[in-house]
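Changelog note: in this version the structure field was regenerated for every chain. One regenerated record is shown below for reference.
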Amino acid sequence: KKYINSTFMTKKIFYLFLFSLTISLLGYKFLSFTIQQFFIIFIFFISIFGTLFFWEFRVGFVFIGSAVLLLIHAANLEEFVKYASLDVIWFLIGMMIILAMLKEAGVFYYIITKLLRIKNLTGFKLFLVLTFISWLLSGLMGEVTSIILICSVVFNLCDFLEISPIPLLISCILTTNIGSSSTVLGNPIGILIALRGKLSFEDFTKHSLPVSFICFVVTVVILSIFYKKYLDKLTEKLKPHIENPLFMRLICVPMDKTIIRSILLFILTVVFIASHRQIELLLSLEENTLLVIIPIIFAGFVLIINNKKAIEYIEKEVEWNSLLFFIFLFAQAGVLRSSGVAEKIASTIVSLSKRNFNILSFGLLTSSGILSSMLDNVIVVASYIPIVFGLKTTLGNLPQKLWWSILFGGCYGGNITAIGSTANIIALGLLEKKYKSKINFLEWLKIGALVGAITIIISFLFLLIYE
């Protein structure tokens, strides 16, 4: 067994260097990279493929890769810190602390249990409620926190009803990823794109939310047909329990002062974020300043109000491992832009697209979608942003549709495979931990590829009419 593991590890290391070297050599030959640009792209892809092949060591890979970029003078220390996108990190830290308060207060369980207390509950109604909650909450609280909560609800209900959780879980994961594109709060790539593309909360509400909702409706129709037998079986399992007081107690969380206070703080946060553009204009602030600092301000109130839990919120609820990974990944992506690598890639893309924005949108959408099915979508979008800035340098002003292209590709492409998004990986990990079972790759791909392809097509049709 040790020999097999050692051989497998050696193969992964070999492929890690092979793929990174091949991409770098292709760039050197066909894109006229300099020697330094060759090493920059090689180190960047070592970090990327290192993350793909050795997920548990992803922070170590970006740490070492970043240090090497500094050693070869790809950027100086001041530039590297500037590229780290600390504005995105501040936003995420603030929202994580606010969500920690909501989770501890039981706010989201309260909302879910209220919705589940539906008269004449059937398998389809339960499916519709859970998928809608998955879509809604991922847009409000982020896909990671949302899917952890939804998994808990699905597992408890399915255990009580003695039915397999897998079809219901897959459905909730798919709608979670779709919902994560609906607002700037839903996914780290949303805030990253908002800040780099100068997009406001209103822009997401006007353009991304409608597309996300249409994709959700279409996905629910597809899933209800695909899992019809399962939903019929779920209805049969529900019948004996509808009037059962034990079932009602299972899905009952009482309202208290903590929940009310937490809901009010969260609503105020969302309201201020939603109106950040108007307040910035009123106060003559730089664009998106309030978008970044509003979560920090309200997180500060949370830490003061819940001062006994402050250390716990900061130490346990803020995902420092992910944030450190993002900091160094964003910095490396910034080096791609400043070194001219991204601009050369962008020039090639412009040449191939013949300066047609619809072709550019289609290329960015489909390629980011396909890549997001294999890599975490944050990695994909962080890699694409320097290229989009390179397109701006080459073409001048860019339409917003290019930013929406990588948002939709990153979120919807994550549904294609079981490893396509952080939400997928977390949910499947929780499934394996609780039931000691896995979802077969092809079992996921049959429905995931269908949903992923159709939602990407829907989003492209939107991009065609978007001006």
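Spot check on this record: The CA atoms of residues 113 and 249 lie 10 Å apart. The chain has a mean pLDDT of 85.
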